[in-house]
Amino acid sequence: MKMFWSLSLCNDPFPLLLKACGSAPLNTKIVGGTNASAGAWPWQASLHMYGSHFCGGSLINSEWVLSAANCFPSHSLNPTSYTVYLGQQSKKLTNSNELSRKVSEIILHPDYDNLPHDNDMALLHLSSPVNFTNYIQPVCLAAEGSTFNSDTMWVTGWGNANSGEQQILQEVDVPVVGNSKCNCLYEELITDNMMCAGPLEGGKDSCQYRQYIGDSGGPMVIKQGSKWIQAGIVSFGEGCAQPNFPGVYTRVSKYQNWINQHVGLNNTVNLPFQEFQTTIVNCDPSDTTEINICTEGLNFQQVFAESFSVLQACRLISQTETDLSYCVQL
Known about the structure:
Layout: E1 2-6, E2 44-49, E3 52-59, E4 64-67, E5 82-86, E6 99-108, E7 122-126, E8 140-142, E9 152-157, E10 170-177, H1 179-185, E11 194-197, E12 208-210, E13 213-214, E14 219-224, E15 227-236, E16 247-251, H2 256-263, E17 273-274, E18 277-281, E19 302-308, E20 311-317, E21 324-328
Parallel strand pairs: 8-15, 8-17
Antiparallel strand pairs: 1-18, 2-3, 2-5, 3-4, 4-7, 5-6, 6-7, 9-10, 9-14, 10-11, 11-16, 12-13, 14-15, 15-16, 19-20, 20-21
């Protein structure tokens, strides 16, 4: 039996506001790859300090870029030191599709905690608006209370732990790891403001090559229908692509009000946060064969399970029914 519920606040799942975001006309991806093609991720931003890339970000409208607070240490908040590049594929070769803007304002979340990177979010105000093209588009943002009907996310950036900085924008698909499981792996460091993604066997991850050079601040997105929606911001992890340590991301849906509070000051409409439907497959909760779950101290209303790939997964819906979690056999 399948159960459906929708968090949509309107009859049209893609009202007029939403049609201006999440479009990637040049993205034809079906399976995973390494180098991203030009225009595949048109909201991807490269943040530069004194002429060098140091972090990622995402364009959320014509004037604002979303990034991570950990990219901006307290002694380096002078906005004139930073430049945002959009439409960029290669850091080595310029192309006619890219443009740059100076940063006029940096807003860090007031409750950002460097350890363990809770509320790791920053807003960058561009010096002037940008015009949208096939290579430069804003991403949609996950609305408050959103859950996801896919276990695969996409992360993009230029960081690589093994070979140093990548010159071509990289893309990787990563499975969601539920907060309950991730909290077990990270020894209770994971808060409700975070989400985790990455194969537990390792090998795929967003990376910060060395301090302030890499993927931090970049987007983790999911496709819903024809729209790409940002669910997370690259935040931190244990090493890079290490087994049993998925990447940790700021959960964008927790910050809808805070983002609108600041971005709305210079915009006539609210940002296009996307609501969408979740599908869950019911199963026998007593069937835990070959499922290794860290469940001590957890209190869940319902248990759902299904098979995907070679792994067995147990889907857990918390009592609030807003946190779709996975516990996967190690």
